[in-house]
Sequence to fold (109 residues):
Amino acid sequence: MIMNIRTDEEIQDRIRQSEMILLYFGAETCSVCHSMKPKVREIVSKHPNIEKIEIDVAENTEIAGKFQIFTIPAILFFIDGKETIREARYFSMEQIEEKIEWYYQMYYE
Fold:
């Protein structure tokens, strides 16, 4: 499930309520973010128990600041409310997918 949320409170609620959730930080003006977004969506679509929230940092600077996002694109992955993966700017989608798959299998299998 992909969600677009506007407030920090909504995000914090989703993090607390979700077993696994991925936050994707990007911006409309970021060409790298545009190329990464479909890849992130594909990873999430393979794992039905993972929620995904897309956050546009240009529109949500306060939220980006609260999560200490200083460069984009950025991915934060939470399990039971705890941040387990944080990657920003230069990262391999293959490595992200491997990490998520490992946690997913450990959690659900």
